Input
Amino acid sequence: MIDRLQQFFHRVICIFRRKKLDHDLDAELAAHLELAIEENLQRGLSPEEARRQALIRFGGTQQAIEQHRDARGLPGLEVLIQDLRYAVRALFKNPGFTIAVVITLALGIAVNATMFSLVSAFLLRRPVVHEPDRVVVVTSINPARGFLPDSNPVSAPNYFAWREANDVFSDISAADEYRTVSLTAAKGKPEALPSAAVSSNYFDVLGVAAHLGRTFSEGEDQPGRDHVVILSHELWQRRFGSNPSLIDSTIRLNREDYVVIGVMPASFRLLGFTPQLWTPLTLTVEDRATAARKDHNLHVFARLKPGVTLEQARLEISNLARRFEQDFPETEKGWSAAVRTLPDFLVYNFGIRNGLALMMTAVGFVLLMACANVAGLLLARATGRQKELGIRIALGAGRLRIVRQLLTEGLLNAIIGGGVALVLAYWGINFVATKMTFNEAISAVPLTLDRNVLLFVLGVSVFSAVLCSLAPALRASRTDINTVLKDESRAASAGRSHSRLRTVLVTGEIALAMFLLIGTGLLIRGLYVIEHQNLGFQPDHLLTAGVTLDSARYKDAAQQVSFVREIIPRLQHIPGADTVAVTSDLPATGPASVRMQIKGEPDLPTNQARNARDAVVSADYFSAAEIPVLRGRTFTEMDSATSSPVVVVNQEFVHRHLRDQEPLGKQIRLNVTGPTPKWSEIVGVVANVKNYSEAPDEDPQVYEPFLQRPVSSFSIMIRTKDPNALASGLRGAIEQDDADLPLLHVMSMPAVIDLQKGGDVLFSRMLGVFALLALVFAAIGIYGLIAYSVGQRTHEIGIRVALGAGSKQVLRMVLLEGLKMTAIGAAIGLAVALPLPKVFAAMFTGLLFSEPRLYFIVPLAIIAVSMLATYIPARRAANVDPTIALRNS
Amino acid sequence: MTAAKLDLLQGTLDLMVLQTLTAMGPLHGYGIARRIEQVSGDKVFLNQGTIYASLVRLQQRGWISSAWGVSSNNRKAKFYSITKKGRKQLSEDAVNWQRLASVMSRVLGMQEGGE
Output
């Protein structure tokens, strides 16, 4: 072994001492011959004969030198170095060609790298917890349809039951991840912050330690001991100037004193969750009661017992869920539970996978087109280099050696392209990062050119090198020396299979461009329709703000009601304020879905239970949002806790649940949180509002009066001429009422909608860029290949012209050739693109993807571009002067 | 030419060089080649040039060493001599080779007797 190493070491050294060793060998061989000649002379031969004999005995000198070199060095490596040296020379010999190849590859690779940085950031980054694959998240599966119905949060009674009954978890914890607290620092205004309430063992289950101080200890989730708080690294930096002595000091949260016991490390971040601070989750006897089963607000994190598999945990949890179903049919019917590993859950729950898969597919196609272009270029050049390769083969270069040489050149191109792509991708990633700020969960994820992206770029570069140089290399290696070295190498027959390969490339490229353009066109059109849809209310001139009433000052429903009763008139008095309302959910921002019953109608089976979106609104909500009232009345101040319960429904509700019968006077019961719900009478019907501003769906909707069912977290909505001018008035009015109450997200309604749609706009812009790139690549590819083939055929065209073909005929011939390729390619692309609307509809529920016009516009655009790309070289061909063309060859 | 046959031939030449250097002491490349030719009864079985690949290989393995010197008729030449490691290798290889040779001659003898 050591001998081997030593020998290898010697061989490597020999590669670098090549000159000296060759010189030494020359001297040695010269000495050899002289010694031999001398001996022959002594034997009485003539000087000439002596030399001849010596040379014969020695054998081929060059051969001996080669053998010596092979024996002393590493022949493979030396060949590679030689190939590289040769490739570099080839690159410099033809800089225009090299630049075209490098830029094409760099663009193709750069868009891939930029997209992949998103994949890396959102899908590949593992949560920084101890053994993330042993941590599982248990979620409820909602029998009702909705957004990700199988990753619903869990109710407290179920959490307790799992904690007590399961055999598969070594530890289990719960978190209420979406709370809002108001933080009042010593100086400055109160600030509303996203927070999470977690059970005391939450950080132990995840296996994460505090950066400073400690995490919660046992018993701190009991009332009385629960006024402790852990800060996120970011909040600690931003609000407290990274002050290490903050630990054990007191801060004001929701008007109460909390002791800061720890600061989490900056790396602790779970995708999709953005709490700025953590407080203990206190669960009381009430949370165990049957009534609490409707309240799904906990995320359950558990660590698997050693040796227990995910499958075993799934089985156990679904068995338990089935038992709940039997024990509590009223609330648990149809519900079941899912178990996922933490990394899986985070990615799934974030719901970004489909979008990214689609983007990666699109950029993958762009790269394929770039490779096709480069392959076309290389192929064209390979034809030009035939003579050179022919000479090399004639001199004894093996076919394999020629293929290796060309692959090395391709690899060098791709590596340089990859390098340039890295620079472009760096810009691209920074650009996307500045645009990816449409919500906190997205902007919390840093986009960087990380190791995954680097590896990806390397892989893609090598892949493209092989892809775009293999075909030309194999072709070149089959070079026929005889044909090539003869002078008439431009004979039409020699180019036959070359032109076939080129035709395949161009046709394929057109098909890809077609497919990509139709695909992106459908998506962009789908998103455009959504962006410009009528939402069912008037978002302009609305100012909104979020309020969360803390339980310290607003303990019960009566206090929440009196706050709203006081604040609405106060806000109405702000100069410029038109109509004021409060609502649990702003219009078109996805109110929650609840199950319901209709008096006099039998209950339906669970899987088709009646559901309606439910919002709690104040009296003037409909006039403030300008939602048309179609039948009956809306709410008044008289619809209060003491009067009989009433609701307003939308048109879709009447259509779907009442089969368009008379709605007024009908009684319904909503299965909402809190005490046993009462029957409520439908007193009015309003027009439909979209569930979300970014989706076309309109579900049945129920509105409840705030005074009858107050909530602690709601939005204020003010109709006014100039929302931005009113913001300070709004803040002032709230401050007069309660100086410690922070307002969350004071912004105009259009801004709320933009924020909600932000991702889609970016998404369609990016798709547009890719589509454009694809079209440009296709045009360049077609132009390059047609131009090249016309150039190659100058001789032939010259003969045609000399024999009497007019320039019109030549023009038509070349154009027809281009048109044939375009037509075939477009037909293939069109055929492959036909099922796309169905595929997209399955991937993006709610979006409409029918746009028949695209199937005309895109082919026309492609034919126009390719005709233009063909016309320029065709005209050149038509103007060929036969005397020059024939003399040239 | 198959790899096994090539290896065998390479090994054979290496062995001859080692043996020659053991028997004759330090020699230059021409001397080694001539000596092998003489011993083999002047039957030319290899090009003399081939010897240099063998020499560089043996040297890299540390079985022989080389130094520039002056030949008997006052010419500058590179002289090779066997090292301690080379002697050890030679004795091992010689035993192997003899074993192989005897097996081969027996096998070939069997064929002749069978006809």
About this structure: Residues 631 and 685 of chain A are 5 Å apart (CA to CA). The radius of gyration of chain A is 38 Å. Chain A has five domains: 2-73, 76-128+352-489, 149-350, 491-538+751-889, 550-740.
